[in-house]
Amino acid sequence: MALLEILRYPDPLLKQKSAPVSEFNDQLKQLAADMVETMYAAPGVGLAAPQVGALQRLIILDCSAKDEPADLLVAVNPEIIAGEGDSLEEEGCLSVPGYWASVKRHATVTLRYQDTDGQVHEREADGLLAIGMQHEIDHLEGVLFVDRLSPLKRSMFRKKYMKALKEKEAKNAEA
Predict the structure, then answer these.
(1) In the chain, what percentage of residues exceed pLDDT 90?
(2) CATH classification at residue 33
(3) Is 113 within the bounds of a domain?
(4) CA atoms within 13 A on the CB side of 5
C-alpha cells in the first residue's frame, strides 16, 4: 500500500466529474487500499477518488469513533437512491484543510453501491455517515462542500482561503 497525495483546493481536477467504474480488478482494489491508508493517515473520515487524482466513482468512509472497531465502507459507483429530512452540520474536507462550514444535507439516505468485486449493496444511514456519503459523492460530481455555501459565504471563503494560501507560499519561498 502507498500513501497518495491529496489534491487541495483550487486544483482543477477537483471540479471534474468522475467516470463510472466498469472494471473490477486488482488495480481498483489497490486504489481502494491506498485510499484507505491515505484517509487514515490524513486523518479523515472519508475520501473520494478524485481527491487523489483518480477520476473514478469510488469513495471510502469510516465514521466510527477512534476507540471503536473500524466501520469501513468502500463504495464503487455509489448513488443516493433516497434521502429524507434536513440536516445542517459543520463539515470539513481533506482537500480544503483548515476550513469548516455548515452545509444543508439530507438527514437520512439510502446508498446503492458496488463493492470492489462488483457486487451490488444498499445501505441506509443517518448522522455523520449520511453526511459523509453525500459529501463524498459530491466529489464524484466535481462539487466541493464550499460550493454548497451561499454566494456570500462562498465569496468570503475564497478570499480568505486564497489569501492564506498565498501567505503560506510566500513563507515557504522565504525558507
Answers:
(1) 85
(2) 3.90.45.10
(3) yes
(4) 7
This prediction has a pTM of 0.93
Residue 172 belongs to a domain:
no
In a domain, 168, yes or no: no
What residues are designated binding site for Fe cation?
93, 135, 139
pLDDT in tens, 111-134: 999 999 999 999 999 999 999 999
Strands 58-61 and 46-48: antiparallel
Q: Is residue 162 part of a domain?
A: no
Residues 115, 74: contact at Cβ < 8 Å?
Answer: yes
Q: If you compute the radius of gyration of the chain from its CA atoms, what whole number of angstroms results?
A: 16
Which are the catalytic amino acids?
A: 136
Three-state secondary-structure class, residue 129: helix
Alpha-carbon distance values, 159 to 136, 142, 169 (Å): 24, 21, 15
Identity of residue 130: A
Query: What confidence score (pLDDT) does residue 107 get?
Result: 98
Q: Report the percentage of the chain scoring pLDDT > 70.
A: 99
- Total domain count, the chain: 1
Q: Which three cell numbers stand for residue 148?
A: 454548497
